[in-house]
Amino acid sequence: MAMTGGALVVKALEDEGVRFTFGIPGTHNIELYDALADSTSVRPILVTDEQGASFAADAVWRASGELACANLVPGAGLTHALSGIAEAYLDTVPMLVLGCGIRRDTGKAYQLHDVDQQALARPVTKAQFLPHRGEELYATIRRACRAARAGVPGPVFVEVPANLYLSRYDEGVALQAWREEEAQAPPRTPPTRNGGAEAGGAAALEGAGLEEAAQLLNAARRPLLYVGLGAAGAGRTLVHLAERLEAPVATTFQGKGVFPESHPLALWPGFGDAAPPFGRAIAGSCDAALAVGCRFGEVATGSYGAVPRQPLVHLDIDAGTPGRNFPAAVTLAGDAARLVPALLRRLEPKPPDPALRAHIAHGRAEVRAKWERATGNGRVSPWRLLTGLQARFGPDAVYTADSGNGTFLAMEMLTLDRPGKFLAPVDYSCMGYAVPAALGAALARPECPVIALAGDGAFLMTGLELLTAAHEGARAAVFVLRDRELAQIAQLQGVAMNRKTASLLPDFDAGGLAAAVGVEALRLERDEQIPAVLERVAAVTGAGRPVLVDTAIDYSEKTYFTRGIVRTTLGRLPWSDRLRFVARALGRRVTG
Ligand SMILES: Cc1ncc(C[n+]2csc(CCOP(=O)(O)OP(=O)(O)O)c2C)c(N)n1
Ligand SMILES: [Mg+2]
Hints:
Blueprint lengths: L1 E3 H11 L4 E4 L6 H8 L5 E4 L3 H15 L4 E3 L4 H15 L4 E7 L15 H5 L5 E3 L7 H13 L5 E7 H5 L1 E3 H14 L11 H5 L9 H10 L3 E5 L9 H9 L3 E3 L14 E3 L8 H8 L3 E5 L19 E5 L13 E4 L2 H10 L8 H20 L8 H12 L4 E3 L4 H9 L8 E2 L10 H11 L5 E6 H7 L2 H8 L3 E6 L5 H11 L12 H7 L3 E5 L5 H13 L4 E5 L8 H13 L2 H17 L1
Parallel strand pairs: 2-3, 2-4, 4-5, 5-7, 6-7, 9-10, 9-12, 10-11, 12-13, 13-14, 15-16, 15-17, 17-18, 18-20, 19-20
Antiparallel strand pairs: 1-8
Helix pairs in contact: 1-2, 1-6, 3-4, 3-17, 6-8, 10-13, 12-14, 15-16, 15-22, 17-19, 20-24
The site of thiamine diphosphate has 19 residues, from helix 16, helix 18 and helix 20.
């Protein structure tokens, strides 16, 4: 049977289980969009800006584990989407970036939207494909989807020349090409992110080093377990691992919920300078560390202020990661889902440590009591808002965060027991993530309450995706955290320079913006209003509509993270620069 290139691509998406494409059509891919209209399983979502497309596709995977597609016109569509593609790349989120290319059959120059898209995509995608014949389209899309999920997950770019969408090709030939490729595909070795063994020191092959790792951990008195998103595949085995080692457990930001945070051994999302005193003390009392599925990146470690105790055993699917930022005594390269159970079998159970558990419980209770005492200064206290949300929306709720102070508050104050519940732009830290991510999460998991925590600055970037959410019936609740500042930066400027340059936001009417896109807006100005506002949020989202909550958030209390990062960064400066910083800030305080 003859099929258009568009229909072949849609068939490949269907066969890969892709349920959503996000994008805006253009002249080059109207054939593809026309074929999408005939699909019963793939839903083409029209966004307001392609930046929202890539953030939403990213969140579909983070919330549900399903691959989604950013569906882009040549050039302008790709460049608008690059922010979310780069976020997915650094945060290891798989995504199909389905680009469209100029016509390759006319021989003409100066075509519409014509820039070198392969070059644009290369630094922010794992792989780039450019099929030349219509018969290759089906296999290319299947291959790209597989590559996105394999090894270290990430976005993969496919550029389909527009002319391939217009013609028809033999379906049998196209599918046969994929069957042959699948039959011959050699087992994949995980691709590396950091230049493999060269950058990472002697990386072990999958499984090698297990005995050595077990010996080291068995000999340790108290190892620290540090887990990232890469450990999620190990599931409940991580709990058995922590219990067998009687190890306190810290997570990265992305790993929040990968280890249940209400477990008595759960320490904090992070350790080192950016953690509260009890977390620092307990991590400091450890005499070894086991890191699983994490990279010791700058954000999660509070600018490298979380230094793991040696000896360190570091397990990651990317052979180039262990040992890259901190030396590792033993490196294990492979999938945590396989290696964690294998390691567990070799570990001797350590006796329960009631003093450790009591220290954690006491430390956590003290932190909570401190937050509980904060009054909110007549505004909305972050602690009451976040605990109120957890109480009202329960363990199924998905939280999307942004780059900003709200992310760190949520990271510290939410207690999450499952992965896929805290979606935040971490390693690229791209503002504008929360609202489109809530759209993607709400579409992928309609049964879960979805709550976006968007800074007011970040909201201005992508808040118009509320229109998309309203149109698609995505029941996302968007809390705009209104402090009229770019707080995460303004706070740093305040501490370090005692003045804020270009970080105070002009005022705007968030409710008016919501009204303009047909979304109900609520105002939340004081703690006492929280229960009633959350009831209304539940009612609106329950009826299948998004809602905006203009929230007068109180940021007077700094997060442990922000305080830690100031300490770490200042501590690293030479004394002369430290003095200059302090003198300048003090001087301005005096002179005003
Ligand atoms: C695209 C982009 N531009 C700039 C930054 C730098 N930046 C990081 S956090 C932040 C402040 C965000 O302000 P807002 O959204 O109001 O959140 P708040 O910190 O006030 O809660 C800025 C400007 C960034 N991370 N991403
Ligand atoms: Mg702000």
